[in-house]
Every structure is written in structure tokens, then in C-alpha cells.
């Protein structure tokens, strides 16, 4: 629990120390206010938060264990388009989804066949991660439609 608090404090310190973008005085961005804000932190590390601002920025995230998270955020771009990203963050990394994000192209047949051959006869290396190979094969199969 203490290590999570230390990490959280470090992230806050980094974000405060980061260079801030100067906004023109009187711009809608400089006049933005928080419309809604909620947060909850449980002793077991589970948490949730959400916020919404007057300039159209909104975000929410939750975690049942403090390590794996799911959430979304949205904002209006300079082009006037509303951008929305839904994501999961877990042992497989940060996995965003959004209509404006690029998608992985279909995997070439020979690559998938090679990985499936490795799956049928995995290396005897004790550090070989069969679960990671299975996850990669499943992800690449999904690119085929």
C-alpha cells in the first residue's frame, strides 16, 4: 500500500513539475472550470475517479486491484471533433480503442503460420512464455477479421 502511495505522489510531483502550456487570456481553455469530480480509494488498492470540465474534457478510470485499470477519456480537438478513447491497462499494457486511432493491419499468413508452428512445438527454454505467445496469436488472428 505504501509503495502505491509513493508512486502516486511521484506521479503528482512529475505532473506539477512538467512545463505548462500557456493559454491565451480569455480563451475558453483558460476559463474552463471543473463541472464534476468524484474519486474513491479503497484500502485494498481498488480505486475509481471521474471528472468533467466546462471545455468538454471528461475522463473516468477504475481499478479493482490498483494494478489493472479500465477507463475512458474524451475531448474536443482544435478541429472541433469530439475524440473519445476507451482503454484497458493490465499485464498486456495500455490498450486504447478509438475511432480516430490507427488499427493494426492484417497479419501476413506466413507470420501467423510460423507462430502457430512454434505453439505446436514450443521451445524447452524455462523462460519461454507460452501465455504471451497465445495472446499474440489471438491478437493477430483478430486482425484477419
UniProtKB/TrEMBL annotation:
Keyword hit for Oxidoreductase: no
Pfam families (alphabetical): Chitin_bind_4
GO molecular function: structural constituent of cuticle
Segment forming the signal sequence: 1-17
InterPro entries per record: CHIT_BIND_RR_consensus (IPR031311), Cuticle_Struct_Prot (IPR050468), Insect_cuticle (IPR000618)
Keywords: Cuticle, Signal
Presence of keyword Signal: yes
The protein's name: Pupal cuticle protein
Organism field: Culex pipiens pipiens (Northern house mosquito)
